[in-house]
Amino acid sequence: MNILRELEKRVLVGDGGMGTYLYDKGYSGSFESLNTAEPDVIQGVHQEYVEAGADLIQSNTYAANRIKLEKYQLEHEVENINRAGVRLAKSAAGPEIFTAGTIGGITGVQQIDTTRKAIYEAFQEQAEALLSEDPDAIILETFYDVTELLETTRLIRQLTNKPIIAQASLGEVGVMHGGTSVTDLFMLLQEAGADAAGLNCRMGPYHILRSLEPVPLMENLFFTAYPNASLPDLDDGRFVYQSNPEYFYQRALDLKRQGVRLIGGCCGTTPAHIAKTAEAVKNTAPVLEKVTTPAETRQEPPAASTTASFYKKLEKVDREQPSVIVELDPPKKLAAEKFIRGAEALYQAGADAVTMADNSLASPRIDNLAMGALMQNRTNARPLLHVACRDRNLIGLQSHLLGLHAIGIHDVLAVTGDPTKVGDFPGATSVYDMNSIKLISLIKEMNEGRSYSGKSLGEKTSFTVAAAFNPNVRNLHKAVQRLEKKIDAGADYFMTQPVYGDSQFQEIYEAVQHLSVPIYIGIMPLVSSKNAEFLHNEVPGIQLTDETRQRMAACGNDRESAQAEGIAIAEELIDQALKYFHGIYLITPFLRYDITAELTAYVRKKELQK
User: Fold this and answer.
1) Which helix (H) or strand (E) holds 142?
2) How confident is the model at residue 302 (pLDDT cuts 50, 70, 90)?
3) What are the pLDDT digits (tens) for 568-591?
4) Which residues of 311-338 are buried (b: 16+ CB within 10 A; e: fewer)?
5) What whole-number distance in Å separates Cα of residue 97 and Cα of residue 135?
6) Are 499 and 521 in contact (CB under 8 A)?
7) What is the pLDDT of residues 68-104, one digit of tens each?
8) 346 closest CA partner among 583, 603, 596, 567
9) Are the C-beta atoms of residues 354 and 384 closer than 8 Å to each other?
């Protein structure tokens, strides 16, 4: 039998959830490893779906790629797990039922720190293992990233002539991340070599139906749908889904009316759901015509209703007029008056923006959004807020950014954030749904008027996005390569960690002079020898020269002398930095804004002397 010829004639029924079904049975860890560790369990699940009426059985290999198996130290078992997965599916299916080798998406909501090259190498390795066992088709499922799904489809098409079923997961009804509609996605998948295209996971039948309603039938492309049982709920620490097999009878009929020819189930579905699906549509003739519901008109979102009115764009540093950003961290205690006085003093001294870290060194401070709003309301200073990935998940990050836009704060620095183990609460959880590069991309997506899921925000945001640069590393070339990735993601300019070596400025300049965006060089005045030793020995990303440490040590315990020496060192560093760069980023120590105000005035004085 040929699955494509059968899809021309009749509606086929797929199987249901594997991972969630095994989870309900008490299994955990890598479900795919059970292909070799407990094959009878996996074959038993396949057999249950066969008895329920499935026409297509998928191999239990959704996450059986090198990148995801590495979490369980199983990356060297890719071939064994995938080949066993296909063999078990074929054994349960017998000669009358189709089998598909399953490949799941890698790039999802949570951040995976790997390269595109490594991802596609992992897909190829998995696909070759699956194909070696001769499945009837390859099914790609739960792909959130359009590019990843298209490129993987092209990759599989180069490896085989077997049918390819390519399924995406949506973040919002009818639209992929980046704003691609389901209709456009299906057309792109057909061009990439897919024989069938569909939607699976993330949504239940209702939202998948709504997503398919605007999609016209397409010549030589079959539609598929594998909805979740429902939205998930949390019961006593376990994710659970509605037990609703009867509901799937009617929804299967509805999916068929939308032109779907292969209907199965994803998370939360069981053999009972598949039995009802089979009762509704198995072996029935597919629809050849459908009336589409007009898709919501996608209009260009209007420009931001609130925009910054400052005369100088931080991302366009004037070569003749240096720009100064000053960091003034929000206080750890509730007394905020000193901070407000400091922000105004820095503005009066000539700072173009006052930037606030986001719980730096993983220690709680007054929320920088609140302090930014206070700064706007009570001073003339321009707030520039750090946004860290550590403390907020993907939902919280977007909510935070929407809040910033709503109150008229448009300058942000995107950072990954120090891990919680360096701070006051080392047992707290570091979220890291994203890293700084993905956060930059998210913000730039919002500047196009779209959320991360692709849904319209109603208007465009107007953020300028700074990114961090640590030049105090052994391999500066690798650090610059990361800057290039941040520029590709949309970074408008960079702010560096503090630099303390006179000779570093030329080295940094030579390494970055090819970059297309400005760089603000970090200068952090020292206030004592103890301060210098702490920064040098305990704070990640900061290195002091021996000469600097010796000069501070020579001041002994004389606080005034130490402060004066710290300012003198900072002025010398500013002199050197301005030979190569025109952006200065001053970091205020211990809310001592009088020091950075003096240094800001020093930069402005240098400007007048030119």
Assistant:
1) strand 137-143
2) confident
3) 999 999 999 999 999 999 999 999
4) eebbbebeeeebbbbbbbbbbeeeebee
5) 11
6) yes
7) 999 999 999 999 999 999 999 999 999 999 999 999 9
8) 596
9) yes
